[in-house]
Amino acid sequence: AWASSNQQAALAELCAEYEAHSQSGITRLLNGPTGERNSYAILPREHVLCLAEVETDLLTQLAAVLAVGSSAVLPESELAKALVARLPKEVKARITLVPDWTKDDVIFDAVVHHGDCDQLRDVCQQVAKRPGAIVGVQGLSQGETSIALERLVIERALSVNTAAAGGNASLMTIG
């Protein structure tokens, strides 16, 4: 709605496309043997670092991040501050501005970068130095809109053997 009301027709189309393709939040029950409950869920990564030097690229990244249900982490630049100031409060609530994204205390689970190859190499090197889990970096050229939404989500498979508790899975949680 914000994109349309701000004469951003291309962005509004992109938001609709991302929303249509996002599988985030879906849970499927899978067939299994009697006494077993199997489910498969696609969940959003919690925090996605968005790196871009051009407003249209930053808006593209925000559209993808919000479509999957994640929160965006943006470096505190003049571009980011000016953009965030214009966004609706519901969107602002899902954005965190950080002074230095390379600090270890800045939390993110994935990175989307718009820029050139040299910048991407530097971003990948910085991300690789971070302690903890491996964080995937998605690199795109300026103006590119084909963000892979599947890289902004996680898959969770859960199998509960209810037969082990006499058919009552709640018995397995009794301490």
What does this structure look like?
Strands 5-4-3-6-7 form a five-stranded parallel beta sheet, with helices on both faces. A three-stranded antiparallel beta sheet has the order 1-2-8, with no helix packed on it. It has six helices and eight strands. The chain has a domain at 45-154: Aldehyde Dehydrogenase, Chain A, domain 1 (3-Layer(aba) Sandwich). It has helices at 2-5, 9-21, 55-68, 78-86, 89-92, 117-128; strands spanning 27-30, 36-44, 47-51, 71-75, 95-98, 110-114, 136-140, 153-161. Helix 2 packs parallel to helix 3. The model has no long low-confidence stretch (mean pLDDT 91). The longest helix has 14 residues, at 55-68. It has 175 residues and is α/β, with parallel strands linked by helices.
What does this entry show, briefly?
This protein has 175 residues and is an alpha/beta fold. It has six helices and eight strands, in the order H-H-E-E-E-H-E-H-H-E-E-H-E-E. The strands form two sheets. Strands 5-4-3-6-7 form a five-stranded parallel sheet, sandwiched between helices. Strands 1-2-8 form a three-stranded antiparallel sheet, with no helix packed on it.
Reconstruct the topology from this structure.
Blueprint (H helix, E strand, L loop, with lengths): L1 H4 L3 H13 L5 E4 L5 E9 L2 E5 L3 H14 L2 E5 L2 H9 L2 H4 L2 E4 L11 E5 L2 H12 L7 E5 L12 E9 L14
Parallel strand pairs: 3-4, 3-6, 4-5, 6-7
Antiparallel strand pairs: 1-2, 2-8
